[in-house]
Amino acid sequence: MKIINIYKVKITFRFNKMSSPQVPESRNSSTEFLISEEDEEFKTFYPEIQSLVTIIVPICFGIIALTGFFGNTLVILVVLFNKKMHSTTNLLIVNLALADLLFVVLCIPFTGTDYVMENWPFGDTWCRIVHYLIVVTALASIYTLVLMSVDRFLAVVHPIRSRILRSKKLIKISCVIILWIVIVTITAPVTMLHGTVKYKPLGVTMVTCCFKNSNSFLSVADYQITFFAGSYLFPLMTISGLYLRMITRLWRQGGDIRMSVESQRGRKRVTRLVVVLVITFALLWLPIQLILLLKALNLYHATTKLKVVLQIVAQLLAYTSSCINPVLYAFLSDNFRKAFHKAINCSKQDKCVSTTLPPLRKTSCSRTSTTGV
């Protein structure tokens, strides 16, 4: 059975302190980090890499998980408890925060633990669930950004005709619910493609959680190409097309005479925020997407120190996308920044219930009523 670990970069190939690595007879029957017994370079840097994998990486995961948990929870509470921030964009921001929150709670702790443990300790069922949730939350994040881009497109290119459509809460909530239903449904086969596998790299039976290429309907290359296209290439191409259409309309001189200057500025601020979110997501996920794609095509082999470190860093960057958005909101949105400050510094007294979030200024009523950001 060919075993290729798609998501984690843990080096599952172990060494005894007193012996050289025992290499299985066939590369197709072992793990992705197999080397020849003559590979002296690997044997030299392995102990150093092993300490990186089992200590530094889990610590980084812990920092990402804690930051993502508190940051995304704060975003959700700030929007839900401030009716003046119940705009279309903020509803999608809540959905994005929810996807990130699910990821940091249900995926990162188990991935981090797997880096520390010799064997996958959570069983076959949870192995399938974790990989399934990784795909679900990744798709939920990127396609929420697609919805945000569609919303910006309608607000900028068709501000009058789309006003009623974008103002109806039922329509907005329905779009989010449909998004989750579609993603949860189409990704169900992921549970059949992953599972625990036993192998013997040192003559001792070990268990890993990974992609299993024992199925007959999808190879690892087919799977990774599909994942790359569906979770990265296609949505980013869609977003790029929308923004190329928006640029001429958004920044042209004179603007829309039926829209106040302050309202135009508000729309530009929101659009800038969405653009930054999209670019950040694309940059953070690009390295791991490329590495996984090249590995699936047998063009990338993590058998040198540099390549192993690059793959670990690439995964950490991708996981960082689950905690960085609240920071971006604080830097790019006055309303979010003030709301965060109020929520963090508010005491637990009853009076904080009604004053946790800052009221919107009357002078910016035109901007905040249309954007809420």
Distance between the termini: 52 Å
Instruction: Tell me the CATH superfamily.
Output: Rhodopsin 7-helix transmembrane proteins
CATH topology: Rhopdopsin 7-helix transmembrane proteins
* pLDDT averaged residue by residue: 78
Query: Helicity range of the residues?
Result: 55-70%
CATH architecture: Up-down Bundle
Largest sheet, spatial ordering of strands: 1-3-2
Radius of gyration: 24 Å
Descriptive notes:
This protein has a single domain, classed as Up-down Bundle (Rhopdopsin 7-helix transmembrane proteins). 67% of the residues lie in helices and 4% in strands. It has helices spanning 40-80, 88-106, 108-116, 123-157, 163-167, 169-186, 190-193, 220-251, 261-296, 305-332, 334-345, 352-355, 365-371; strands spanning 3-4, 194-199, 206-212. The longest helix is centred in the first third of the chain and has 41 residues, at 40-80. The chain is globular and about 70 Å long. It starts with a strand and ends with a helix. Pfam families: 7tm_1. Keywords: Cell membrane, Disulfide bond, G-protein coupled receptor, Glycoprotein, Membrane, Receptor, Transducer, Transmembrane, Transmembrane helix. This is G-protein coupled receptors family 1 profile domain-containing protein. GO terms for molecular function: neuropeptide Y receptor activity.
Task: Summarize this entry quickly.
This protein is mainly alpha-helical. It contains 13 helices and three strands; from the N terminus they run E-H-H-H-H-H-H-H-E-E-H-H-H-H-H-H.
